[in-house]
Design brief:
Elements (H helix, E strand, L loop, with lengths): L1 H19 L1 E2 L5 E2 L9 E3 L6 E4 L2 E4 L4 E5 L11 E9 L5 E7 L11 E5 L29 E8 L2 E6 L2 E7 L20 E6 L6 E10 L2
Antiparallel strand pairs: 1-2, 2-14, 3-6, 4-5, 5-14, 6-13, 7-10, 7-14, 8-9, 8-13, 10-11, 11-12
Amino acid sequence: MKKLFFFCIVCFSLMAFSTVINTNEDGWISLFDGKSLAGWKVGKNAATFHVDSGMIIVHGNTAHLYYDGDALQHNFKNFEFKAEVKTMPHANSGIYFHTQYQEGGWPDHGYEVQVNNSHSDDVRTGSLYDVVDVKERYVNDYEWFTEYIKVQDKRVIVKINNTVVVDYTEPEHPLRDTASHAFRYISHGTFALQGHDPGSIVYFKNIMVKPLP
C-alpha cells in the first residue's frame, strides 16, 4: 500500500511538472498553455490581457505581461524565442527580453522587439526599438506571422517569418539615452508582452523559448 501511495505521488508530481514546462524533443519550451495566464504576471491594467481560443489577446490601457513561470526560473540569457502574432489595424505592441517585472510604466530593463504593422509610429515589426529601427513593413494586419528572436552573447537576430530583419551586435560601450534607456543592454531576464494603448488589438499564441548555452 505504501509503495502504491508513493508511486501515485511521484506520478502526480511528474504530471504537474510537465504542465508547467512542456519541452519538445528539439528543446523548445512552451511558455503559454493556451488556456490561461498561468506563469505570467501583470501589474497595473491587468484587464488589458485575457485568453480566448488558445490566444493571448491584448487590448486595453498600457500594461505589460511578464513571463513569471518555472522555465529557467524566468531568467534567460542566451536563447531562441518565437511566437505567432497577429495585429489589427493601427495596433502597436512589443516583445521585451532581458527585462524585469514592474508594477507599471514602460519596462526599464531589456530590449523591445517591435510589433507594429500600421500604427502611426513608423518603427515597424521586427525593430530592436530605438536601437535598430526597421521602416519596411514585412507583414500585414489580419495575418498570422512568426516573430523570432535569437540572443547569443552580444548578438541579437530578429526574423519575421523566415526573413532576417535585424542582425545586431551590441558594442562594448553602446551609446544610450540615459534618461529613458539607461538599462537597455544585453544581460539576462524574462520576457514581456506589451499592451500599448486602448486602440491596439494584438494576438499572441504558440509562445516558445529554446535555451542556448
